[in-house]
Design goal:
416 residues; alpha+beta; Collagenase (Catalytic Domain); Jelly Rolls; 2 domains; 4 helices; 23% strand; binds zinc ion
Length: 416
Amino acid sequence: MFGLSSDGDGTKWTVWNWLLLGVALLTSAGCSPSSSERPMCYQSLVTESALSAGSGVWQTIAEPLLDAEGVSEEVQLSTGSSDSVVLRVSAPQDAKACVQLHSVSDENGVAWVTPPTLIADYGSYCQSCPQRVSVGVGGGVYVLPSIDPAPTVTGTMRVRAALRDCATFLPYRSAAGRPDRLRIEQLVPPAVNRTSRGEIWIEFVILPGSFLSGDESAFPTPLREAVDQINTILSPGSLAMTPLRIRRTASADPLELKSGDLSAIASLVDSLKSCQHNGERPRSQVLPIVLAGCIRNQSQSLMITSEPEGYVAHIPDGVITEQGPYGVYLSGRTCRENSTPFVLTSGELAKRIAHELGHALGLYHTVESDGTTDQLADTSSDNLMNFRPSVVAGLGSGFTTNQLAVMRRHPLIRWQ
Ligand SMILES: [Zn+2]
């Protein structure tokens, strides 16, 4: 699931109801102190201090002013010798602002991202852009190039960002209280050999609505098996996911999302940040995979409420902003009161996690419900990233070469 589209088998879900909206705000999860002096709010699966961690550094490039349509002044940035451009856009005056890259071009005059022209470009992502960019709710991360074959990164790039109206994703025109500037940051990558094997560090967060909430084992078997299956399809790209932690917490069910307001996710991420042990990897390097209970998503423009099987805040996702929502969320039950959790096999878990992980690392649906396809030449509807992954048997043939190439550019990946 991403934005206004919907993952999964829709027949399973009902579209209802407004009554509980507003009732189910998140409570702070906090950490339950154990008998020792150190809060044991998660269980470690590895010795994190032993992990190598080359990490990029975010540098603010500019805080350009916005015009009447919410579009920023042009900013020039230098890419150095990097083969990708990783940007973060946010509004320093409004942590909930909705942002998007508006245009990107290289020094040869090649347009990577073009300003929206179709009304469809004002959806959750720009459809007609040479390289897609999605609306970032509460800030957005952009990893370019996002297509294969990829254009060559030139030494200088020209960038405009824009503020979008969170209710409609249309231009946010001048109004009282509207932010007057955006912040554009660039990630300067660590000096590592990016041709080697890459790891994605993850943390599982199990909420009460998940069928695994009663499983007290250090690493529940279905999760362990799912990770093994996902790593099998990541291995052709020399990638692997490495679970660092399992956390069980009592908050965030239902998880109430809105297309332009992800405060519920931001609150959950904040509660995770409050539980950080000395010597362990900072949250900014670890992608949470949340096994939630009910997830309810309200599209503000279409006035539709749905219950997605899975959700990510943004494509790509997974690089935390100061306050921003991020992470992978899987639904664990319907939103009916007292509904019982879905019991998933390791194969079903693997498929759902792999699909959302693909979004988090920059993959769009190979085919959307309206027939729109992604921008990779070697994908088809018979792929894990189909908008309805249930049509694919098992994990299908895994990720394609081009999909793996996109994922390898993501800055969450740690290189060995
Ligand atoms: Zn999806």
